């Protein structure tokens, strides 16, 4: 596949400006306007966050769980941008999500692990995105299948979306593991060998599933020269409506960042 060697994508610009891995942070789910704004202001105060994430439409494993606030939360993200200047990103899984997110000026979209796994869904998203200039981050599929991950990126590229990044969020496994999703670090390396210029972001929150694993997983990603980290943050993590065990306060995120050893990037 051709993800062309364009060095003026959204992600490469941010990386060049910062000279350090990007940081994407925000709650697993947008729950209330107050929660979203409190998180965003807390993150802004750290002075290190590049992109504010929040799930609006949540792909929950079982029905009856909190499935996200839906479109009512999109104006909250517009308020985040107006008040903090932070650009925003949400997960999209259907053409309607794409249309609504773009209408509300969401800056970057991401495709979740449960969508990347389905070529029909990915193709519908690619068709909906064709002709837009929006940057797109593609999470790995839930299962350890690099070809499927690459295929989703190729579908984007063929639709004219070349402003792409990949997110490693770990792979589901039957084997007992301390991780929520096994990191299997070789698989993203395999993706990078296929697309060397593609920015690669690590999501320690969904790999670890536990707060105490965020630091070692993030450190490993930095040691492997990842281009960014995505870490879930919530003002009151224990009361989060989704992924409570893995979220940290913005203040705790600041401490974790302080403990990370950032190598000097070679490129
Ligand atoms: C998320 O980012 O909150 C999420 C649902 O992630 P994933 O698609 O990696 O499970
Ligand atoms: Mn989550």
UniProtKB/TrEMBL annotation:
It comes from the Bacteria. Keywords: Coiled coil, Transferase. Its EC number is 5.4.99.5. It is an enzyme of class 5 (isomerase). Transmembrane segments: none annotated. This is chorismate mutase. It comes from Hymenobacter saemangeumensis. The lineage of its organism: Bacteria, Pseudomonadati, Bacteroidota, Cytophagia, Cytophagales. The chain holds residues 1 to 267 of 371 of the full protein.
